Amino acid sequence: MPDKRARRHFSQLSEFERGLIIGMKTAGWSTRRVAGQVDRLECAVRNCWEQWTRECTHARKTGSGATRKTTRREDRRIVQKALVDPTVTRSTMRADVGVAIVPQTISRHLAKANLKSKHLFRALPLTPEHRQLRLQW
Asked: In this protein, which residues make up the domain named Transposase Tc1-like (predicted)?
């Protein structure tokens, strides 16, 4: 039971929970009492209430991460190119997609599709027996 409670604190507040918090706080409940009732941390309740009093809204804010440079269709196209021709380079893929992206983006999409990069051997790896024969020669 304690594990479930600990995990719950790290998930986002649902719209319903936000509404409950605002209703209880409007009714005059303390932050501690509201947190116990909705099974959340006091700071989550306090943050929700502060947003409500400051902005008059309880909606979640949009993410602050970087904007996407490629669409989902372009992501699929990158993966398809790698499947069709495993020897194609990242710069060639970038030119084919037609979007200004860095090579790391292409690598990330391929890694997400569980595709590994294929490097050619500079030389065949030698077994201990081969090394011994080579030294004798």
From this structure: 75-137
pTM over 0.70: no
Nearest-angstrom CA–CA distance, 102 and 107 = 9
Q: Looking up tokens 């941390």, which residue turns up?
A: 41
Report which of residues 1 and 76 the model is more confident about: 76
Which pLDDT band, with edges at 50, 70 and 90, does 33 fall under? very high
From CA 109, how far away is CA 117, in angstroms rounded?
12
Which pLDDT score, from 0 to 100, does residue 1 have?
A: 44
Give residues with Cβ within 8 angstroms of 33, minimum separation 6.
24
State yes or no: pLDDT of 99 exceeds 60. yes
Between the alpha carbon of residue 45 and those of residues 48, 105, 113, the distances in Å are: 5, 38, 39
Contact 21, 45 (CB under 8 A): yes
Cβ atoms within 10 Å, residue 83: 12
Which residues have a Cβ under 8 Å from the Cβ of 93 and sit 6 or more positions away?
A: 78, 81, 82, 106
Element (H, E) at 103: helix 103-112
